[in-house]
Write a structure and sequence with these properties.
single chain; mainly beta; 10-stranded mixed sheet; 6-stranded antiparallel sheet; 1 helix; 31 strands; about 0% helix; about 50% strand
């Protein structure tokens, strides 16, 4: 394990038991009032503490108390999902003229990498980063040829870095020895009240997108890209989530892939008017799934000591488009041997007075 020296962002790492003989780690990144806890089980963001307008610190993401708790994570709290985030219809696609059949784990679809996707794996601790005005960690996992039906040995790395601008920068990279589709995302759910408010219906959301990928009754894209204007899913201007959520009762809430507009600014801004906390999301990915925890059922008590209920948080999953291997008109997600998959997403935390 490599370690680099000197930082103004605090970094600590400690082992917290084992799972299947592999060590579990708790990594802590801290800058002023921002504290981030990460575990290598599922490459997971366990907690993110930020202050409200009165300086009160709360954990604004859904999660569990200890790294080992993520061995059972049915709602994908905070983890990295892959090889392919979101859904692939029927778990099937053609690659080089050959049919590929993945595992099917969600309404006849392949979802978030299958039954034992990246979220279930104990990632290796590759390195701790201490350099300049930032600190972080690099975690790695090798997905074997045939795992969940995917071709090729895929070597994946995820780097989490906290900087002095109160930004958490997530960099994903991967290489393969066979052509294979790749699409990683982080599946954190945000409630900027720190779950003091049980619902995020009062949160205000803005998404820099004018279009979305239409979906069918099985929640996979039809292939059509439609305008958001005039629909209940249009967040092109800041809008209270609860104002629109009942427009999508068939989905129990929002579960939409937005076709992000290109530009230097954030692709999404989420604000909580009760606490003043806000989150800005930046990414180089073409899409983002907005998902409002539609199936949370009150069966889990989270790290905050609160019961997690339907619409208790919102996930902003930066990604390639769902079911891309079955839609030639979507941005290509197939990684070639000799190429490097790279994707970057930034979470920027702040507070309005």
């Amino acid at each position: 394990m490599n370690t680099r020296q000197s930082t103004t962002v605090a970094l600590t790492s400690k082992q917290c038991g084992t799972l299947h003989g592999a060590p579990l780690y708790l990594i802590t990144l801290q800058h002023e009032n921002i504290t981030v806890h990460i575990t290598n089980l599922g490459c997971t963001l366990m907690s993110i503490y930020t202050p409200d307008r009165n300086g009160v610190l709360k954990n604004i993401v859904a999660g569990f108390e200890q790294p080992a708790d993520y061995a059972n994570n049915p709602w994908y709290f905070g983890c990295v999902v892959g090889r392919f985030a979101n859904r692939i219809a029927g778990g099937r696609f053609m690659l080089d003229g050959q049919p590929i059949q993945l595992t099917v784990n969600n309404d006849n679809n392949h979802l978030h990498g299958g039954f034992n996707g990246f979220h279930t794996k104990v990632w290796a601790l590759d390195s701790l980063i201490r350099e300049g005005e930032q600190a972080g960690v690099v975690l790695e996992y090798t997905s074997k040829d045939g795992e969940e039906g995917y071709p090729g040995n895929l070597q994946a790395k995820v780097q989490y870095v906290l900087n002095q601008q109160n930004q958490l920068v997530i960099t994903y990279t991967a290489v393969t020895d066979k052509r294979t589709p790749v699409n990683f995302t982080n599946h954190s759910y945000f409630n900027l009240s720190g779950f003091e408010q049980p619902l995020i219906t009062d949160h205000v959301l803005q998404v820099n997108a004018a279009h979305y990928t239409e979906k069918n009754a099985h929640n996979v894209p039809t292939g059509r890209i439609l305008p958001l204007a005039g629909t209940g899913a249009d967040f092109s201007v800041p809008t209270r989530i609860g104002k629109r959520i009942n427009d999508f009762l068939q989905d129990k809430g929002f579960d939409h892939n937005y076709v992000l507009s290109q530009g230097p600014g954030p692709v999404a801004i989420l604000e909580d008017p009760h606490t003043g906390r806000y989150l800005k999301v930046f990414t180089d990915q073409p899409g983002m799934q907005v998902y409002t925890a539609n199936y949370w059922d009150g069966s889990i008590v989270g790290q905050q000591g609160k019961v997690y209920v339907q619409h208790g948080a919102v996930a902003l999953e930066t990604q390639a488009f769902p079911d891309s291997p079955n839609h030639a008109e979507f941005p290509d997600t197939v990684l070639e041997p000799g190429e490097v998959y790279e994707a970057v997403t930034v979470y920027e935390f702040g507070v309005k007075g």
